Amino acid sequence: MKNILKELERYLQETMSISTAPLKWEGAGRVPFFLRDLYAFFQVNLFNTQCLLMVERGQTDQTPANIRKHLMLLQEKWDGEVIYIAPTVSAYNRKRLIEQRVPFIVPGNQLYLPMLGMDFREHFKTIRSKSIKLSPSTQAVVLYGFLRGKEESYTPSGLANRLGYTTMTLTRAFNELEVAGLGEVGMEGRERILRFTEKGKHLWEKARELLKSPVKKRIWIEKPRGNWRGIQAGLTALAHYTMLAAPQMPVYAISQEDWKTAKKPGDFFELPGAESGAYEIEVWSYSPRLFSDTAVVDRLSLYLSLQEHTDERVEAALGEMLGAMAW
């Protein structure tokens, strides 16, 4: 509790250049017990306005609607303004708090005090740098939203089996998407939910600069045989989707896990480079079969794998392929 009050004092000093000294509210004994269990109460003077701070005691998963009800109950016992204070609030819930007209402060992040005409946000926390790229698991969630997802919201447990990642990994992916400004994360019961801020082509345009090629490395082998999980990729796949001529050297993609499994029986002889009759193998950071039901990789992953290609014919074919997509 002391830490959040110190952070609050520092935040108010930095954002509004005012010094505050929150005092414990002596009238807390008059409020319902369940509210005292959820919040600690302090009074403070902001711009000659007496304010009561209802400071969240822990991660209680309160909905914005419930927080507003609690605020209204407190206003029956307090002759002044009431402000909700929390160490963290998801972007999704911050938006809902504003819709509910609930005054709140998240120290170091955002201050919303409509009765004082104030809405300060720390923009540096959501600045998206072109040099930042999403992790493979986070990129998989975005691509799922483009290519597979029909739902309005997603949960880590709901995506875990579909994408082959753990619930914990997908929880971190949700956090990454929220920071990147691509999704809003909230709570539904006791489980986190993700809603994308855009859909279809709009989401693609917003996310594209943060997405990277799925190709981890390229290997050349003799003709595949035996236990083979690869599917067409690279210029071979682009020739499938467009009028581009197929390359002389076939290109296939395979996941890191499938490549490790495929190598064990000794079914593949790795070549030192691109020799005549060789096959080019792209080892991907996620399974190329994840978003494809055919023997060819999906269009968006293919685009990302070839976006750095300098051949004008390839660039034109990539544009043709995306133009034919039904967003």
Q: What's the topology here?
A:
Elements: H1 2-16, E1 23-24, H2 33-38, E2 39-46, E3 49-56, H3 64-75, E4 81-85, H4 91-99, E5 104-106, E6 110-113, E7 118-121, H5 136-147, H6 156-163, H7 167-179, E8 183-188, E9 191-196, H8 200-207, E10 215-221, E11 231-232, H9 234-241, E12 251-255, H10 256-263, E13 270-271, E14 279-284, H11 299-306, H12 312-323
Parallel strand pairs: 3-4, 4-5, 12-14
Antiparallel strand pairs: 1-2, 2-3, 5-6, 6-7, 8-9, 10-13, 10-14, 11-12
In words, what does this structure look like?
This protein is α+β, with helices and mostly antiparallel strands and 327 residues long. It folds into 3 domains: 2-123, Trna Endonuclease, Chain: A, domain 1; 136-210, Winged helix-like DNA-binding domain superfamily/Winged helix DNA-binding domain (Arc Repressor Mutant, subunit A, Orthogonal Bundle), CATH 1.10.10; 215-323, no CATH class. Helix content is 36%, strand content 21%. It contains 12 helices and 14 strands. The protein has helices at residues 2-16, 33-38, 64-75, 91-99, 136-147, 156-163, 167-179, 200-207, 234-241, 256-263, 299-306, 312-323; strands spanning 23-24, 39-46, 49-56, 81-85, 104-106, 110-113, 118-121, 183-188, 191-196, 215-221, 231-232, 251-255, 270-271, 279-284. It has a 7-stranded mixed β-sheet with strand order 1-2-3-4-5-6-7. It has a 5-stranded mixed β-sheet with strand order 11-12-14-10-13. α3 (64-75) links the parallel β3 and β4. The two termini are 48 Å apart.
